[in-house]
Amino acid sequence: MKKINLPQAAKLTCPNPVTVVCTQKPDGSTNFATVSWWTYLSFNPGMIAYAMAKTSYSGEMVRENKKVIVTIPGAEIADAVKGCGSTTGRNTDKAEKFNIELADVEGSSIKIPAHSRVAFQCCLKEYHEVGDHYLYICEVEQVYGDEEKEALFAWNGYSQLRPAK
Ligand SMILES: Cc1cc2nc3c(=O)[nH]c(=O)nc-3n(C[C@H](O)[C@H](O)[C@H](O)COP(=O)(O)O)c2cc1C
């Protein structure tokens, strides 16, 4: 083996996971951000975590509202998910810009992409500084799934979004 850096390792660990983190903006609309760095933490109680750059607008929103829905996007919206990963919601309505069809989630004012395979409805329990990111540790309140939808994964590091098969 030879010495490599973390971005090179990310290419070797493909396909990498892809989520869309959905948070509420001050005007009530939903912001969407693409996040690969997520993990299950605990089944009982249900807990997941994800890491986001300190500068991300989504991070600001979840630290303020303590509510977030983490979704596994369906293959149909690959281009939109890529767009959500290269634009900040600070001054853009990503749902409109990337033409994302929205779905309601019971008991939540946060919307999700209608083409989602899984949605984890969460409340933020705590967050920790980890280098240039914050790690958001979330309690899962409800999980929704649709096995008819094919999940998206990131290939070639994070540059291409396609199903795993
Ligand atoms: C495939 C892919 C995976 C990404 N994974 C992460 C991630 O795990 N953590 C992160 O902070 N940003 C990640 N990004 C970048 C964010 O989605 C990007 O910075 C986005 O503009 C943040 O939006 P926001 O400012 O509206 O929160 C990823 C982008 C792509 C395309």
Task: Kindly describe this structure.
The protein is α+β, with helices and mostly antiparallel strands. The chain has a single domain, classed as Pnp Oxidase, Chain A, CATH 2.30.110.10. It has helices at 6-12, 57-65, 78-84, 94-97; strands at 16-17, 19-24, 30-35, 38-42, 47-53, 67-73, 102-103, 112-113, 116-130, 133-145, 153-155, 160-162. Strands 3-2-6-9-10-5-4 form a seven-stranded antiparallel β-sheet. A three-stranded antiparallel β-sheet has the order 1-11-12, with helices on one face. A two-stranded antiparallel sheet has the order 7-8. The two termini are 28 Å apart. The structure holds flavin mononucleotide. The site of flavin mononucleotide (FMN) has 22 residues, from strand 3, strand 5 and helix 2.
Fraction in beta strands: 35-45%
DSSP strand tally: 12
Share of helix among residues? 10-25%
What is the total domain count? 1
CATH topology: Pnp Oxidase, Chain A
Number of helices: 4
Describe the structure in brief:
The protein is an alpha+beta fold. The protein is 16% helix and 43% strand.
Question: Can you lay out the helices and strands and say which pair or pack?
Answer:
Blueprint: H1 6-12, E1 16-17, E2 19-24, E3 30-35, E4 38-42, E5 47-53, H2 57-65, E6 67-73, H3 78-84, H4 94-97, E7 102-103, E8 112-113, E9 116-130, E10 133-145, E11 153-155, E12 160-162
Antiparallel strand pairs: 1-11, 2-3, 2-6, 4-5, 5-10, 6-9, 7-8, 9-10, 11-12
The structure holds flavin mononucleotide.
